[in-house]
Amino acid sequence: xxxxxxxxxxxxSLKNPSLSLSSKPxxxxxxxxxxxxxxxxGSRPLLVVVSAGLDAKPTILVxxxxxxxxxxxxxxxxxxxxxxxxxxxxxxxxxxxxxALIVRSGTKVSREVFESSSGRLKVVGRxxxxxxxxxxxxxxxxxxxxxxxxxxxxxAAAEHGIALLAAMARNVAQADASVKSGKWQRNKYVxxxxxxxxxxxxxxxKVGTEVARRAKGLGMHVxxxxxxxxxxxxxxxxxxxxxxxxAISTADxxxxxxxxxxxxxxxxxxxxxxxxxxxxxxVNVARGGVIDEEALVKALDAGIVAQAALDVxxxxxxxxxxxxxxxxxxxxxxxxxxxxxEAQEGVAIEIAEAVVGALKGELAATAxxxxxxxxxxxxxxxxxxxxxxxxxRLAVQLVAGGSGVKSIKVTYASARAPDxxxxxxxxxxxxxxxxxxxxxxxxxxxxxxxxxxxRGIRITEERITLDGSPESPLDFxxxxxANVESxxxxxxxxxxxxxxxxRVKDGVPHLTxxxxxxxxxxxxxxxxxxxQVDQPGMIGRVGSLLGQENVNVSFMSVGRIAPRKQAVMAxxxxxxxxxxxxxxxxxxxAIEEFVFLKL
Length: 599
Description:
This protein is α/β, with parallel strands linked by helices. It contains 18 helices and 25 strands. It has a 7-stranded mixed beta sheet with strand order 1-17-16-18-19-20-21, with helices on one face. A 7-stranded parallel beta sheet has the order 11-10-9-12-13-14-15, sandwiched between helices. It has a 5-stranded parallel beta sheet with strand order 5-4-6-7-8. Helix 1 (68-75) links the parallel strand 4 (59-62) and strand 5. Helix 14 (375-397) runs parallel beside helix 15. It is globular and about 80 Å long. InterPro entries: ACT-like_dom_sf (IPR045865), ACT_dom (IPR002912), Ado_hCys_hydrolase_NAD-bd (IPR015878), ASB_dom_sf (IPR029009), D-isomer_2_OHA_DH_cat_dom (IPR006139), D-isomer_DH_CS (IPR029753), D-isomer_DH_CS1 (IPR029752), D-isomer_DH_NAD-bd (IPR006140). Pathway: Amino-acid biosynthesis; L-serine biosynthesis; L-serine from 3-phospho-D-glycerate: step 1/3. Residues 527-599 form the ACT domain.
């Protein structure tokens, strides 16, 4: 039982302030070594000197063209080797002499590169946003921090979105091609006006916000959908936050600015095109994969979509015979969103500052992979780390569309003294679970607090001190989201917040509370939550429906207020049920509401 009221949690400071969580101090080129094992199993490792010199500066390899301003920043701190168009073999040969590597999208930083560095490579900088060309798992395994430059191209991407919006509305590209072919077809290329039209901005992050500002200046009515965008920030520039379905069904123009994640892949598909207003026009300067390109061609041919303007594609470059690219009502550009002189210089400066800061041992706000964590800490907290992330994922999926997630409260119950439990990793994993499902940001111990703050999310921590043995680090973790509506009303606790709580049992994370209802379900696979009238046979009816569709049930638990009153049934499933199956569950008379949650 609790011996004291909850108290504000204070994170213990690092015992050695000279050490950083983001990187280890670089081994200068004055004396660098690597340890390689002999091929015979069981033999002692062989110490090999890689390089020896008199210069104590680190060495940075720039493998692709970088703006002059960025190069000058690097040269003030390090030896800079600008070697472009390296083959994979040449890169692997050079990398063992380098402390940092800077690339754009054309250089593959594979596992072989990290292995060839023999432990010397401390930082990889990606001059841009995407990190698809960097093997993050290998980087983390080799203790190498990966940083990117996510902000410098914001205005350029927004401007390109507006340029495509206007060019599409007035048939600029088609009319240009027509005139150059010797034709003069004024009647064929009559356009539509932007003023007074409704623009739906799908994804209200940095670029989406800048597009909205510019569209307002053109006299457009702007709405937006983004589950993380604070409503007050949207209102400040005259934008209304709405649900996904409302956005796509009421818009005259749709501008996509969402990241490519499992939940957004092909989010504009046959089903969602059918919900749109006939004659809608679509702009995409985000990621190609968020649109089902075959479905878009069908929607264009059917007249549902009047026009599209695309800067990005699922495969780049797209096939020459692509029906989408060749469609007469589609305007295309070759991924030019960030291609301005100013943006390229800005990216160069941003990535140079990030790489130099990381080499100095400073915490990197733009880090995209997890830093090294002491093995003994990670071993003890491992199941709680999994629990923390899954609670975050569950909580955010319970938020109704259009609600801005701003205030999170995390409560830890433990018998340990405050100084014996550092919760930074747990807080980072909760943040990861909250943000990553609908974002392209990679959240880790280094950037978690920065990422949450950047999105207007305030996370407070409290702890309840329990009696008993401190052998286990935690008794339970509770996550609450305040001031939002819920997709599952029963997840709202008596105090008014979406509430989920979990424990680790026999090394396995369990969901033990939803709202005010006690449940017990293993956090494996996915979960169906049902609020029902408590009566005999409910478990059997739902289980039978799932069994008929070959959906395996791993756990099932019922929490109730009192016999024959309301109850919440939590069902763990290994596979995602079909929509038809979920509808059948919802049609059971005694079931008042239900929700399917992916883990």
